[in-house]
Structures are given as structure tokens and as C-alpha cells.
Amino acid sequence: MTEATEHFDVLIVGAGLSGIGAGYHLQEKCPGKSYVILEGRDCIGGTWDLFRYPGIRSDSDMYTLGYSFKPWTEPKAIADGPRILNYVCETAVDNGIDRKIRFHHRVKRASWSSPDARWTVEAERTVGEGATEIVRFTCNFLFMCSGYYKYEEGYTPEFSGTADFEGRIVHPQKWPEDLDYAGKRVVVIGSGATAVTLVPEMAKTAAHVTMLQRSPTYVVARPAEDALANKLRRNLSAKLAYHMIRWRNVLFGMYFFQLCRRKPDRAKQLILGGVKMALGPEYDVAKHFTPRYNPWEQRLCLVPDGDLFKSIRDKRASVVTHEIDSFTKGGIKLKDGSELEADIIVTATGLNLQVLGGLEVSVDGRTVDFARTLNYKGMMYSDIPNMASAFGYTNASWTLKCDLTCEYVCRLINYMDRNGYKQCMPHNVDPDVTELPSLDFSSGYVQRSIAKLPKQGSKRPWRLYQNYALDIVTLRYGKVDDGVMQYS
């Protein structure tokens, strides 16, 4: 059964970190606009509610992962999942955004009609025990804040012999509440942000935790608490202290990213020097912590207070760098013939990326293939009208870019209102713009999906520079009518 269609000026998809931010910016900058947030799950928080594995935390500091409009006031700069979730929920409740959310609404399809200048959005609503019905909404502007990966399942490669293993196999994206690992031998497969979070946390009570990696990742230790930030907050207003630390962290992040790109050997020396200091001269840093690529060709892993290194020094955890041959009855057999014993195997093997939460999009009856679109200013898509998506930085905090995206979308909507326009659509007329992959990352999760992702162009405004300072200039102060965005 389909209910009567409801209409909103703006329809936001997703009630996670970026969706709640979008609601706030709309209320502040476009106060006359009606909006609704459709959320497929039954609660606020997105990633920060979905992931429940031990030790779940951010790998960005909260002064940049936090919203520009809501100071982070907790002592820990590298915060755990429950605290971040609390921050997002608090933002929603304090600003009345929670009242605009419709839970259990999984958005499936969106079709644009040029004659009507509106989107028709179909969502699957859960009613009662597992039953669903289709509900329709129309909107003038569609704002996708549904993240960049598939919530239903993580990525697990095919390992031979998984049926033979007599223990439990767990993926961090589907962490079972009843998993008791105290006194057990645990193998965590992976070397990314999830693995380096899980290993020290599980090592607190497990008999031993082994991080099994095919190849190493760059790992950087940072203090969990920011001493200067806490000192400034004691002496200045929360807002002023927050913005000062936010800018200090942004500028340092930009400086370090540029150092990695321009002087990779120097950056490598700095990172590996830190690891050698943490693990001592006897440890084989070359084998276990020296990647085959340069720093920032993939995301760096952050370990608060060097907790991973401490668990290795205390012999509660260890790192094995080798390829897997197969799972066995009692663990994992490696390609060199040796075997790792395990009671529990955690496959921290990554995410499945997907464009706009897997949404099916059509424009005037034509199905859109996002792999054939160009990404405009990191948020809109060529020849798709009145639609934007919040996609954060890959080399800095996610929220920094999402905040700017929300500001820009509000500017765009207000500009259209002032000029009586009903439609805005980025359209490339420059024959010199060539297509490039949208993400310049060699990470497995990016490379597995790159063919399905939208492209970026060789120059502005189709080019993503992953540079916050540059984006502030173009998104906050640049012209909305730039000759590429077509209004009608």
C-alpha cells in the first residue's frame, strides 16, 4: 500500500553526523524552508550507532570532527563511539532536529521531473514484524547524507576453509553482543583503523591478540587528551577555545599532508621514527610497520596514547605480517606453512563502498549511472538537478567538508529563491576537462569500488583538492553563479 504523498522543500536522507548537521544549517540559514530527514534505521547516529565493536572511536580529533557550530567540550580529543553518538544526539535534541526525523524509512528510489521541478522519493517503511510498505515524498531539493559505505554488510574476502574453523568468526560491522573474548586467543585480520582500535582494546582481557596483516599501514600515536585545548577551555569561552584549537589542528593537518606529498621520505622518517621509539630497537619495524607505499597514499592510522604499541610491548598483542593460506579447525594456516591458533577470528577487512546509499536515481525517465557523472565541488553531479550529497574529506576530518557543503547548499537554495529559479544543475561545457578517478587513494576499499564511483575533472569546479582552506574560499565565498551551474 502507498500512502498519500507529502511534500517538503528539502528532503535529507540519513540521520547520522552529516544529516543532523544539514538539519541545523537549513534551520539557521533557510528558516522558511520545510524539511524532513528520512532514516532507514531506528535511531540517530549513523556510523556512530552502527558500529558496536570494542574500543570504537574516531580516528580524527573531535575539534575538527565536531560541528563548526557546537563546541566539543569533553576532555578527550580522540573520543570513543558512545561519546560521539551522545554529541550527535544532543545536537539533534537541543535544536529540535530530532522532531523532523522519520525512522524506519529506507530510501530506495528518487526520480526527477523537469516539468514539475521536483523529486519524487520512494522509501520503504517498516511496519510491524518485518513487513514493509512503500511511502512517497516529493521535494524541491534532495540532500543525501547517507554516508559512503553499505550499512548492511562489511567487506570480507573469500578465505578457504572458513567452514572448518571451530571457533567464532566475527566482522566488526556486525559485532555480536554476546561475544566473550576474555581469556581467549584472538586473531584480528587487517591493518586499518578498525584493526588498530580492536587489538589494544581486546588485549586488555583476551589471552593474546594477534594482528594478522598482509601488508603494514602507517601508524601514528597521538595523545588522547589535548593538553593545550583543555588549558584554553579553562581560561577562555568554550566557543573561542574550540575555534582556536580547530584551526590549529586544521593547519597542522594540511601542513603534514603537504609534507607527505612533497617530501614523502621525510614524512616516512618522522612516522617510522615514532614507531621505533615506541617499540624499541629490537622490534622489526621494517617488516611490520613500514608500508610499501608513501604516507597519505592511504589513510594513516591513529592510536591514542600509543595504546597499540603498549599492548605489543606488554606482550598482550603481537603483529604477524603474512598471507593467509586457509582457515583450519584451530585457527589460520599461513602461506609459509605456520599456523596461528585462535578461538575467535575477527575479519577487520574493510567496508563496501556505495554511491549515495545505493539509491536508484532517474532524471526525466533516464536512469543515472553515477560512474559516468562528474563530481561538482565535491557535492553535486553533472546533469543531475537539485541534488547534493555530503561527502567528507579523505585526508582530514569528515565533518569539515560536510559543514561547508551544508553552508553551500543553503546559499544555493537562497540564491534560487531570490532569483525565482526552480532548478539548478551543474553542466560541463569545457572540452578541456578530462576525467580522473574521484579518490586518489590506493587503499583496497577504494580500488574495489573506484569503477562505480563518480569521476572528478582535471580542473575546477570539477576537481577535488581535499584542501579545507581552498574550499572555504570557494564554497563559503565563491560565486554561486559560476557559469557551470545552470539555472532555470
From TrEMBL:
GO terms for molecular function: monooxygenase activity. InterPro entries: FAD-binding_MO, FAD/NAD-bd_sf, Flavin_mOase-like. The keyword Coiled coil does not apply. Its EC number is 1.14.13.-. The keyword Transmembrane does not apply. Keywords: FAD, Flavoprotein, Monooxygenase, Oxidoreductase. Belongs to the FAD-binding monooxygenase family. This is Monooxygenase.
